[in-house]
Amino acid sequence: MDFNSQMLLLSTLFLCFLSLQVQANIPTLQTYIIQLHPQGLTSSPFYSKRQWHLSFLEQTLSAEEDSSSRLLYSYSNAMEGFAAQLSETEIEYLKKLPDVVAVRADRKYEIQTTYSPKFLGLSLGTQGVWFNSSMGEGAIVGVLDTGVWPESPSFSDSRMPSIPQKWRGACQEGQDFNSSNCNKKLIGAKFFIKGHHVASSPPSDVDQEYVSPRDSHGHGTHTSSTAAGASVAEASVFGNGAGVAQGMAPRAHIAVYKVCWFSGCYSSDIVAAMDAAIRDGVDILSLSLGGFPLPFFDDSIAIGSFRAMQHGISVNCAAGNNGPIQSSVANVAPWITTIGASTLDRRFPAIVRLSNGEFIYGESMYPGNKFKHATKELEVVYLTGGQMGGELCLKGSLPREQVEGKIVLCDRGVNGRSEKGQIVKESGGAAMILANTAINLEEDLVDVHVLPATLIGFAEANQLKAYMNTTSNPKARIQFGGTVIGRSRAPSVAQFSSRGPSLTNPSTLKPDVIAPGVNIIAAWPQNLGPTGLPEDSRRSNFTVMSGTSMACPHVSGIAALIHSAHPKWTPAAIKSAIMTTAEVTDHYGKPILDGSKPAGVFAMGAGHINPTKAIDPGLVYDIKPYEYVIHLCALGYTHSEIFIITHMNVSCHKVLQMNKGFSLNYPSMSVVFKHKTTSKAVSRRLTNVGSPNSIYSVEVTAPKGVQVRVKPRRLVFKYVNQSLNYKVWFMSEKGKEGKTVSSSEGHLTWVHSENGKYKVRSPIVVTWKN
Ligand SMILES: *[C@@H]1O[C@H](CO)[C@@H](O)[C@H](O)[C@H]1NC(C)=O
Ligand SMILES: *[C@@H]1O[C@H](CO)[C@@H](O)[C@H](O)[C@H]1NC(C)=O
Ligand SMILES: *[C@@H]1O[C@H](CO)[C@@H](O)[C@H](O)[C@H]1NC(C)=O
Ligand SMILES: *[C@@H]1O[C@H](CO)[C@@H](O)[C@H](O)[C@H]1NC(C)=O
Ligand SMILES: *[C@@H]1O[C@H](CO)[C@@H](O)[C@H](O)[C@H]1NC(C)=O
Ligand SMILES: *[C@@H]1O[C@H](CO)[C@@H](O)[C@H](O)[C@H]1NC(C)=O
């Protein structure tokens, strides 16, 4: 090192040291959400909400400080309160001011088709649900995500009806985005960045992202087009999965709220978006975001959703991608619809043919434009044992001389699947085999890799590795088989889909349902390659993605269809329709699988969505907003916790006295036996939304270890909108028989007397806790 560069290094170090010194004297500010008493403003001298909110900062900050520069958002619809930047000392002081109900530090959440409409039976002419629901006409779906690519053909408004009169939203201007980007399909677009800005200062990422509703990531374009994208003929990903691409509700309107940035999605931004969406007049909210399961009073999404539900908005959320770990399910509030992911029966075979004649099944989208194609026979290498992560194909771990012109085997994990392909390509590799590990087992996720590649299951990976161990010169070729439909069992539960039971609220069975979330083709920004990698210079209007993020907008779109067909239904009635008509068998009429075993209720909830039936469920379990308050009381939430969640001042003592034996009218039943209790009763109320003079009788499959009694066993509905109650008793036999099971499942179904016309099914799960 010469003298000059040493000086430079020293002075840089010195400068760093200096800036650290300076920073240490400025207390670090972070974002807090401050919830206020809803009646506080009326008893204060302020004439505007913003002034009232600023007054809390003025009381807290020193006189020289500009309080308005600290205020990020004033909320009024999703929550009473505001978001502001404060130091720890300041928030300690502010907490104690009158009318402050709760204070929460900002929290980060993460984001988690050409074929799926047909798979779900949507487009069957005058028989299908699209015919009866006018394809979602009149409904507005609000999507909280990474924004939108408005020029995508999926957001074209040709033949769209005009914008509903009640719409109060707008198209917010920003970088490369203005009002001309909205139309009768994409009727609103806004972005919320203040929380993200505070959390990521210096705002390095922001330079690479559009500071506008425009999507820099692709995820939001994909999810919003899945919910309500327009029909696009001849859509495909380089010839893969070719067909008509359309959302679940092709005539519904879309309003986009960008809350997710490269570094994540912050709760202060999410609440601001929900606040705007409620005021703007959306009918459905779709949140393909998740985090860790939290108690409701500490979860801004749960609190904002409660307000949305009170306004008649259905809130649909992804269950999370942390399966198959037990109790990983997130977004579990009973007023939210929680959605897990399932597989389609569409496959993209990419078979590895070994030189010894064996072959290994894998899947991939071939990046070229040809259907049938195979690589040459090439040597296969697997760089294990090094320090650099060669077996994972991490950056810098693949020496060119060892991989050039070869097929490189890479284990999944640590870096992204497409990223591994990019690294193999950069290192000179000719092709890639991605191997599932014990974590992913046999899950098949396809990607549009930048080089010929395939993904193989865990068992297949062991087979390949064993072959490589016993051969001095292992060789193989990858043979691509195009798109194959209908030859595999589907739907099944996706391996990654988060599982119940919910730890924060075991009395509600979660997830509620599963929906297609594996290898979903939907719209994609026109300036991104289909892998989303910066190095990917290919362009496609569609790409394939997997996740509960993809499952969630399927249900949001279906909620839009139901809303369009039944505009007066509450969010609870819409959810009930989706849950009680869900399927528990696959397209072969056999139980839906979870891996190699039949799926349980903690994996699939009520089952796999069936939109055709959901639009006409016969009966619904409806819930009035106030009933959730009684439920929270019954769960033992404190007065102040309930106040934070609902903004309602209730005395649970009185509430429970007036509602003895209350059960939340949920479409599924979760019964928890604690300590020595041996019997439990729940009640339910069914409302007739089918035809007058309908008679239903009950069929029960009792969970193992309990006896179930239902009264009455017959419900006679004379007219439409009539509600009738029934009661179910569960008697635990566990003590008597000394069984060791900790939970067991069954179901209860009300069957219409014209057999098969309507079947209203509720899953039951019984859990024993000590
Ligand atoms: C659609 O409506 C028609 C006519 O009202 C009815 O016969 C048909 O059963 C409905 N289909 C569905 C799926 O609800
Ligand atoms: C919006 O942007 C487009 C393209 O950048 C431009 O042609 C148009 O004039 C702008 N419209 C408005 C209303 O600013
Ligand atoms: C292959 O050989 C390595 C080293 O001998 C061993 O650790 C590994 O378990 C073997 N793999 C298989 C699948 O046989
Ligand atoms: C994407 O769609 C646009 C608008 O329909 C079209 O002009 C363009 O050619 C398409 N791009 C590709 C790569 O197919
Ligand atoms: C709730 O109501 C009671 C009596 O109506 C009142 O004394 C109390 O201050 C209220 N609490 C809040 C947080 O509004
Ligand atoms: C049922 O109730 C809804 C909303 O309350 C109402 O719009 C509808 O007309 C009622 N239907 C009948 C047949 O009474």
UniProtKB/TrEMBL annotation:
CDD domains: PA_subtilisin_like, Peptidases_S8_3. Residues 664-766 form the Subtilisin-like protease fibronectin type-III domain. The keyword Secreted applies. It comes from the Eukaryota. It is found in: Secreted, Extracellular space, Apoplast. Required for arbuscular mycorrhiza (AM) development during AM symbiosis with AM fungi (e.g. Glomeromycota intraradices). This is Subtilisin-like protease SBT1.2. It comes from Cucurbita moschata.
